[in-house]
Amino acid sequence: MAVLLETTLGDLVIDLYTEERPRACLNFLKLCKVKYYNYCLIYNVQRDFIIQTGDPMGTGRGGESIFCQLYGDQARFFEAEKVPRIKHKKKGTVSMVNNGNDQHGSQFLITTGENLDYLDGVHTVFGEVTEGMDVLKTINETFVDKDFIPYQDIRINHTVILDDPFEDPPGLSIPDRSPEPTKEQLDSGRIGADEEIDDLKGRSADEIEEVQAEKEAKTRAILLEMVGDLPDAEVKPPENVLFVCKLNPVTTDEDLEIIFSRFGPIKSCEVIRDWKTGESLCYAFIEFEKEEDCEKAYFKMDNVLIDDRRIHVDFSQSVAKIKWKGKGGRYTKDDFKDYEKERDKPSKLALKEKVKPKQDAKYDFVLDEDIEESQMSQSHSAKKQKKKKHHHSEDEEDDKRTKKSKDSDRKHEGERCKEKVKSEKKDRHRSRSRSQERDYTYSKQKDKYKEDFRIRDWDKKADRSRSPKKSKDKERSKYR
Hints:
Blueprint: E1 2-7, E2 10-16, H1 22-33, E3 40-41, E4 44-46, E5 50-53, H2 66-71, E6 78-79, E7 93-96, E8 103-104, E9 108-111, E10 124-131, H3 133-140, E11 155-161, H4 183-186, H5 205-227, E12 241-245, H6 253-260, E13 266-273, E14 280-288, H7 291-301, E15 305-306, E16 309-310, E17 312-315, H8 333-343, H9 368-465, H10 468-479
Antiparallel strand pairs: 1-2, 1-11, 2-10, 3-11, 4-5, 5-9, 6-8, 7-9, 7-10, 12-14, 12-17, 13-14, 15-16
């Protein structure tokens, strides 16, 4: 159950959902069998969305079903099959196009995007592309106009049925070979499918070189824009700036300005120098105020002798002085465009000498109404200032109060800390004094005990040393 479509860009193989969509598949297969789709244009290509074909006239308004050939014009369209529901989820989904009344004819579409939910329920899915996805990709990327019609014709040249499960209905006339296309079919007003597009055909060698040089310049400009060296690929250098090269290293900015100023006023004249040594690099840029003066200098100063050197003059191709958001810049493309617009406008700044002096206010003519308005405005401004001062004073008072409260809190916290430290010191001192008293009483008791012990020993020794005679004499003397 498959069909091969031979297009001008390659072949596509479509597998059909014959069980889910029998009527749509029957219509499509029999139209292919009678060579109805031969030389049909692909007239609608919307990138990453759909490609549409199936109309022999190539307008998108024609086409008819196979039932029209069998049963007449009343059967030009047939009813859509909505059950079972098949969604447009993947690329290559093939659907019959709805004519607006939930009916189908011969036109069909192939999706080139994924998850196209808004097509579900409108167009009837009846198959999918299984081979030739690269061909589908090339058709998707073709160039089209604003109406999505390709500039060069893409056609279905031939259709081949690979497998047909349906029997041919009675009365169906099948041609022996593919019919020849008519002039109306081939005349689309576009580039033919077999025509070769050659831009260089009929041009001379010099013209071909110019075209190739322009293309190379465009590609380089695009690369420079991608890198960040150019604000825009289509940017043009200023036309009032001359590039002067082959200068003598002795030549200075003032010398060039004096020489070129005879053609017109000069905005700037700069000899490019080495940023390290300050020596001249023998080329310069001269910017004139008018483009006409720049053209005169270009035609008359080329190959002129200046300081024993033949100089070369050309229009500048540099855009170095244009500011944009490139490497380390601060400007965008829009800023660059605004800069181009405002470059030629006269500046709003002026010298002090050129500014008109203001008239003395004493001699101005003033009306009573103006005086009243000025007084009212002054009183209003004074009220505003008073309100501001009042609010300011209130804010200051609030700040002072908050500061005082913070200071008092800090003082209380400091006093509490000091009291804690003192109490801890007192407790330590008391404990130390108690321990010292205990040690002192213990030592005193020790000393007393030692002294008593010594006295007892001494008394014992003294008693032992005494003689019995002397003791008797002493007793006698007592009683005398």
